[in-house]
Design brief:
With 141 residues, this protein is α+β, with helices and mostly antiparallel strands. It has helices at residues 13-29, 34-44, 53-66, 68-71, 76-89, and strands at 49-50, 92-93, 95-100, 108-114, 117-118, 132-134.
Length: 141
């Protein structure tokens, strides 16, 4: 598992291009107020199946490879958005989360989860409280 400060291995050219597009869109989306971001992501997740941990990690690693801003410790919002957008391009959707740290100093973090656990994050369960989540939509079977 990579931390946001470690650059992953070089992905293929198509994946790098897709990740760059996702990062660009994520930076635009990150300029919006939180509730608008939640609404846009709520629309984008429609029709996608839940993302698995491995594919979400692959998307996150590609995002980290192509963007130094997302690799930065303060790049959690564009990193999480770009990861979710890249997964969506593959027809899947992870759970996108935003919330405050429960221990001082106060900070807010954004991350993605798949298979019920944070992807590529070093914090322990319960370190952050989830204020906003955009989960996959369960399609009728």
């Amino acid at each position: 598992m990579l931390s946001a400060l470690e650059r992953p291995d070089r992905p293929g050219a198509t994946l790098r291009w897709s990740a760059r597009v996702a990062v660009g869109l994520a930076h635009l989306l990150a300029l919006m107020p939180p509730r608008r971001i939640q609404a846009v992501l709520g629309l984008l997740r429609r029709g996608a199946r839940p993302a698995g941990y491995a594919e979400t990690e692959r998307a996150r690693d590609a995002v980290l490879y192509v963007s130094l801003a997302c690799l930065n410790t303060e790049g959690c919002l564009p990193r999480s958005l770009a990861t979710a957008l890249l997964c969506r391009a593959w027809g899947t959707w992870p759970t996108w989360c935003v919330g405050p740290r429960l221990y001082p100093p106060i900070a807010v973090h954004a991350w993605v989860e798949a298979d019920g656990r944070p992807v590529g994050e070093l914090f322990q369960e319960g370190y952050f409280a989830k204020l906003i989540t955009v989960t996959p939509v369960n399609r009728p079977g």
